[in-house]
Amino acid sequence: LAPICRARTDGRHGGSWARETTPRVCSRAPPTTAPHTWRVIKLLGSGGFGDVYKVAKVNDPDKTESAMKTEMVVGNRQMLRLKIEVLVLMKCHEQTDPARKGHFVAFVDRGKTDKFKFLVMGLVGPSLEDIRRKDLLKNYSKATAMTCCIQTLTALRDLHGIGYIHRDIKPQNYAIGLGEKESTIYMLDFGIARKYTVACHKQIEQGCKDDLECWLYMVPLQKFLHTSFSSINLT
User: Fold this and answer.
1) Does 3.30.200.20 match the CATH number of domain 38-122?
2) 24-53 tens-digit pLDDT
3) CATH number for region 126-218
4) Which position among 109, 130, 168, 210 bears the catalytic label?
5) How many helices (H) and strands (E) does the chain have?
6) Cβ atoms 95, 102 nearer than 8 A
């Protein structure tokens, strides 16, 4: 890996996506990987906990592009979001049934440097929120709307099936695939996911029902099945 310095952007910061930039590359390689394993193509987004880059493996004849999520190391402060995301994503892909991991991006690589930790995973397209904002005035067919509802709920079922709750269900955390996978919806961002326990069923902690409740609010906001959901009292 050629480690990445935090790039300046001319877009917005915080939790929103930044505009494309030309990333800078540091000369020092991380201690856990061979030098120059990954080549940074561009910055995709920037948030309060780190950045997301489009990357490609050096000398890869297929030139497959992936996404690299980074988490900065700030002094002695321990940031666990990326570690949790790695654990959940690996757990998702340990399942033997292929149908149970179809809505999770591929796990490619992980590692750390003296300045940041990183996770390399499959690259996906725009989020459902991006699509909603772009096509706000367009009407989706009922078939498309129903497919979105089924796939987002299926991803949630499969996550719960391995013993984790997401705790941040929203349109920004679902995205469509690229190329031949453009009809597949993927669940993203497991940084605050947690294993659920028996206490969840006693409503002491957040549990599966909380993810489902968030999903119910997400669907009409996306304007999926607008007519069908308009008469439902979500309270």
Assistant:
1) yes
2) 333 333 333 444 689 899 999 887 778 999
3) 1.10.510.10
4) 168
5) 6, 9
6) no
CB neighbours of residue 41 within 10 Å: 16
What is the token pair recorded at 195?
A: 């294993």
Q: For residue 182, which phi and psi values (nearest 5 degrees)?
A: -70, -15
- 3-state secondary structure at position 4: strand
| Separation of alpha carbons 38 and 170, rounded Å | 31
Could you read off the pLDDT of 128-183 as tens digits, one per residue? 988 888 876 566 777 888 899 999 999 999 999 999 999 999 999 999 999 999 99
Please tell me the distance from the alpha carbon of residue 157 to that of residue 181, in angstroms, as a whole number: 20
pTM of the model: 0.73
pLDDT reported for residue 142: 79
Domains in the chain: boundaries = 38-122, 126-218
Residue 69 marked as a ligand binder = yes
Determine whether 168 is an active site residue.
yes
> Please, where are the H alpha helices in the chain?
81-93, 128-134, 142-161, 198-201, 208-221, 226-229
- Kindly state the average pLDDT of the residues 77-102: 87
Q: Which contiguous run of DSSP H or E holds residue 72? A: strand 65-72
pLDDT tens column, 52-62: 999 999 888 88
